[in-house]
Amino acid sequence: MSLAYLTRNPKTDAGIELRCLVKEIHKIETYHDRDLWIKYFNNWCEKYNEFLKEKSESDSGRRWYTHKSLRKTRSLIKNALANMFHYLDDYRISKSTNGLETKFSYLKNSLKIHRGLSNENREDFVIWYNYFKYNS
To answer: Who's near 107: CB < 8 A, 6+ residues apart?
Structure first.
């Protein structure tokens, strides 16, 4: 989500730096790498703290934060930090959710085919789908 919020070509130095930082997350293999990345992220937050507080104002007097996507990305990462690196403790945990998203996309496509199901039958469908898909 961070890369989506930041766009492919950020216009500000803060956006360019944060995008580079976010792209390094998948390279983290050790606790040392994690600690170093968190240090860089915290330094980025400190460096651009005032920049992220900038507000714009319309002619009518309405005010909003100028750099919404950067603020959104910073909040996303700060809130996720506590759970971002569990894969370092347990090798069975994947670094990314790509595999899980693939499984859900198959389920969603199957549900689309049966779009007339009631809520109760949809729940049963999901249970049986998972049972037959992953227990055989």
So the answer is: 126, 129, 130
Q: What is the DSSP string of 55-87?
A: EEE-TTS-EEETTHHHHHHHHHHHHHGGGTTGG
**Torsions phi, psi of 64, nearest 5?**
-155, 160
Q: Whole-prediction pTM value?
A: 0.73
Please say whether the beta carbons of 68 and 46 come within 8 A: no
DSSP letters of the chain?
-HHHHH-SS-SSHHHHHHHHHHHTGGG--SHHHHHHHHHHHHHHHHHTHHHHT-EEE-TTS-EEETTHHHHHHHHHHHHHGGGTTGGGT-TTS-SSSHHHHHHHHHHHHHHHHTTT--HHHHHHHHHHHHHHHH--
Burial (CB < 10 A; 0-12, 13-18, 19+), residue 99, is: exposed
Tens-place pLDDT, residues 74-101: 999 999 999 999 999 988 888 877 777 7
d(CA 68, CA 74): 10
